[in-house]
């Protein structure tokens, strides 16, 4: 457990002893294709516990919701709706998340993929909400396209649904091998509404995409440069997912990466550049 803050009302995970480790075949697959799907990273009991934390993180009246982003979307008739999009860094309000079986098992995989010891990794997390029938797609992008141009990263993301997640609900989809190149040019897909919502500029061959439907408690992993996408949620059930980004400590680049879309977003939103990042539930600087 880190120094994320005092214990929350949720208490510890109910699954402290559930452990999963990657096989050599899984590590080799990830190295070649840049993603991997696994059927189970946690228990049903922990999924129920995470569902309770998740609900609090998307509740306006709850202290766990302080970093939750709310978006304006439209329903099927075009009526504006305020929807819950993402809850960033819930581990800062609920430090027990850092002791979850999901986080520990995801770290086993991430460390193997990156070829480092588990204690060389830190993490930050976010919860994602795609409402029933109106949840928009998450456009094709690379995670690293969002990150600080002045820093170098080695990172692996884990993504776990809290319920069964078919393609129609918005499971993860990947372009195999796309992690082997650099960060591609991106642009803001909705500059008037969400200038920090990026999409890769280059056309993506959808015929190459591999969709990874998952059971509740299963997870996908992907490299920070792997192109990925989730479709709109066309089902009658909300899609709830919990993502964890594991990384080695970022290092300062001699020359910042060329990410003009990040700079354009900063200017539009009035955000300054910053080398402060969240790791293990606390703010850290370089």
Explain this structure:
This protein has one domain: Jelly Rolls (Sandwich). The relative contact order is 0.21. The two termini are 22 Å apart. It is globular. By secondary structure, the chain is an alpha+beta fold. The strands form five sheets. Strands 1-12-7-14-4-3-2 form a seven-stranded antiparallel beta sheet. A four-stranded antiparallel beta sheet has the order 5-13-8-11, with no helix packed on it. Strands 6-15 form a two-stranded antiparallel sheet. Helix content is 17%, strand content 30%.
Q: What's this, in brief?
A:
This protein is an alpha+beta fold. It has one domain (24-72, 81-284): Jelly Rolls, CATH 2.60.120.620. Helices cover 17% and strands 30% of the residues.
The domain count comes to: 1
- Biggest β-sheet: strands ordered side by side in the sheet: 1-12-7-14-4-3-2
Mean pLDDT over all positions: 91
User: What characteristic shape results from the CA principal axes?
Assistant: globular
H/E series: HEHEEHEEEEEEEEEEEEHEE
Compute the number of helices. Answer: 4
The main pleated sheet reads as: 7 strands, antiparallel
Set down the secondary structure blueprint.
Layout: H1 24-33, E1 35-38, H2 44-57, E2 68-74, E3 80-88, H3 101-114, E4 122-130, E5 138-141, E6 151-152, E7 155-161, E8 172-174, E9 186-190, E10 194-200, E11 210-212, E12 219-223, E13 228-230, E14 239-247, E15 251-252, H4 260-269, E16 277-279, E17 282-284
Antiparallel strand pairs: 1-12, 2-3, 3-4, 4-14, 5-13, 6-15, 7-12, 7-14, 8-11, 8-13, 9-10, 16-17
């Amino acid at each position: 457990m880190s120094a994320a803050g005092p214990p929350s009302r949720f208490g510890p995970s109910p699954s402290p002893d559930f452990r999963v480790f990657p096989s050599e075949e899984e590590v080799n697959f990830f190295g070649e294709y840049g993603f991997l799907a696994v059927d189970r990273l946690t228990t049903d009991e922990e999924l129920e516990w995470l569902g309770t934390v998740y609900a609090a993180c998307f509740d306006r009246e709850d202290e766990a919701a302080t970093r939750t982003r709310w978006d304006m979307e439209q329903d099927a008739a075009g009526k504006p709706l305020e929807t819950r999009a993402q809850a960033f860094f819930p581990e800062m309000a609920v430090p027990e998340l850092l002791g979850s079986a999901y986080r520990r098992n995801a770290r086993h995989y991430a460390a193997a993929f990156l070829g480092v010891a588990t204690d060389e990794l830190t993490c930050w997390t976010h919860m994602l909400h795609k409402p029933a029938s109106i949840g928009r797609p998450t456009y094709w992008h690379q995670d690293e396209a969002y990150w600080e141009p002045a820093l170098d990263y080695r990172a692996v993301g884990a993504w776990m649904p809290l319920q069964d997640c078919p393609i129609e609900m918005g499971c993860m989809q990947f372009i195999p091998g796309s992690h082997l190149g650099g960060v591609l040019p991106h642009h803001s897909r909705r500059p008037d509404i969400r200038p920090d919502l990026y999409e890769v500029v280059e056309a993506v061959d959808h015929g190459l995409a591999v969709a990874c439907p998952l059971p509740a408690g299963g997870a996908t992993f992907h490299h920070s440069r792997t192109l990925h996408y989730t479709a709109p949620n066309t089902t009658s059930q909300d899609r709830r997912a919990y993502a964890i980004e594991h990384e080695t400590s970022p290092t300062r680049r001699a020359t910042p990466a060329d990410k003009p879309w990040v700079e354009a977003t900063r200017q539009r939103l009035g955000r300054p550049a910053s080398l402060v990042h969240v790791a293990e539930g606390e703010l850290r600087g370089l």
